[in-house]
Amino acid sequence: MSNSPEKTAPNVPKKLVVSIATFGCQMNAYDSEVAEGLLSHQGYELVPDALESEAHSRNVRVNADVFLMNTCSVREHAEDRVYGRLGMLSKYKETHPDLIIGLMGCMVEEHREKLFRRFPALDLMVGTRNIKELPELIEEVRKNRRQVAKIRHDGISIEYTDQISRKGRFHAWLPIMTGCNKVCTFCIVPITRGSEVSMPARDVYREASRLVSEGVKWITLLGQNVNSYDGNPHPTPLPEGEGVSSISLAPLAGRGQGEGKFNFPELLQMLCEIEGLEKISFTTSHPQDATPELYEVIARNPKLSRRFHLPLQSGSDRMLKRMKRLHTYAEFKEKIDRMRQMIPDVSITTDIIAGFSGETDEDHEATCRALRELRFDSGYVYKYSLRPETPAANLPDDVPMVIKEKRNNELFQIQKQIEIENLNKLVGRVVETFVEQASDWTPGKLIGRTYDEHKVVFPGDERLVGQFLRVRLDEVQNLTFLGTLREY
Ligand code: SF4
Under CATH, which number does the domain 17-150 receive? Predict the structure, then answer.
């Protein structure tokens, strides 16, 4: 580390300090945990985001020898933050030439070697399917001081490894598929993550069982569209030394549809049968692939989280068509009605885009009406930002920023009001809550997640972290419940 006083013995290579700053979705968070785990097993020291004074570029300091950014391309703003940091790091490197700067994630997949030309100070790029090669790439840069990139075009980007550096003791991310076969015109994912590829069902089962054997109680399944999971039955060979061979795959025998393939509801059912796994969530879903078969599995399995994220994007059929969402508003509403009928305690969340290409006042009004009618439990509202290389890049980005902001704000306020009303309806109930952590801010307080993943804060002993308890929801403050422990 450039300013570390650490002493190293002669002829013993200095332990390099690596820092990974993560942007974007949970899939990136998982990939960063894998990268950190692999590097730490190779003898690197890992430190949290080591770039200081981001807001004052003249005073930048990097407390690491290797600074990596795991990047996101979904919105322009996310890319701009990385470009801003690359600019600062390039300047810093003029006086600290030993610093190694690297990129991982979706921006690498999208822009590839072009980034080397734009940022000559950038040393390495690792594709989403090449994370395992990160240690050797860093070593290559260190030895030869030249730009290196490994970006594979095929295969799957998911890496299961017991060397992962998980942030949570009781909760784990578990990617089950990557890529997307849909062609929503605004979306960069099919370009950055490629076509859908599912992990074999037996690998998912084995990895979930391994996590449970390490004390994990809650698993969140990840994928760009988990509902279209289509798991091949054949397991990939067990990596040497992973120590999981004792996990029996017998429960899978004879299961799965045609030729032993598993679809998403079947995978969920199978995972629910793992003893010791107490809660399973998943994200995210495309409406077209959300089926009554899936609702049925959720309804009969209390282990499955009651939070269901189903992006609507717009309430206007004209916009939905322009976005190629493959459904109308009426079809979407029918799905929500059916889901609520089959899973009465479900909590549905959504994404909305404000100001997509060609959006008129009438289209915007249709989205406002949809929010009021569907009464989502939470909604993420975004201003549309054109992503080059997406199909929508050929459409005019013709809604002025000031209108996008106005519509964004209006949708946000409508949704926020509905959220507050929905939360207040739950006040007084006693609900199952998973204790996630002790509060960093208020000693003696615990932070938990309810059965439908609402945040609740309540007094309690930190030895209760990792347990499922019953908590009474007393009041709502800033979209968070304040509660009281009822029994444990
Ligand atoms: S389904 Fe989701 S990931 Fe796939 S193209 Fe549409 S928005 Fe992108």
Answer: 3.40.50.12160
242, pLDDT greater than 50: no
Provide CATH code, domain 171-425. Answer: 3.80.30.20
Instruction: Return the pLDDT at 453.
Output: 94
> How many percent of the chain have pLDDT more than 90?
74
Query: What's the rounded mean pLDDT across residues 226-250?
Result: 58
User: For the purposes of burial, counting CB atoms within 10 Å of the CB of 142, is it exposed (0-12), middle (13-18) or buried (19 or more)?
Assistant: middle
Substitution site in 286, 319, 325 for ligand 1 pocket (most atoms within 8 Å of beta carbon): 286
Helix axes 292-300, 264-272, angle to 10 degrees: 10
Spatial separation of the C-alpha atoms in residues 201 and 243, rounded to whole Å: 19
Instruction: Using the atom order of ligand 1, give the atom closest to the CA of residue 190.
Output: 5
Distance of alpha carbon 112 from alpha carbon 462, whole angstroms: 46
Note the pLDDT tens digit of each residue in 128-157: 989 999 999 999 999 999 999 999 877 777
Structural domain boundaries in the chain:
17-150, 171-425, 430-487
**Single-letter amino acid, residue 392:** A
74-124 tens-digit pLDDT: 888 899 999 999 999 999 999 999 999 999 999 998 888 889 999 999 999
The pLDDT of residue 155 is: 75
Identify whether the C-beta of residue 122 lies closer than 8 Å to the C-beta of residue 116. yes
Ligand 1 pocket test: pick from 73, 184, 227, 326 the residue with the most ligand atoms within 8 Å of its Cβ. 184
Minimal-distance CA residue to ligand 1 atom 6 = 184
Protein residues whose CB sits closer than 6 Å to any atom of ligand 1: 180, 182, 184, 187, 189-190, 224-225, 286
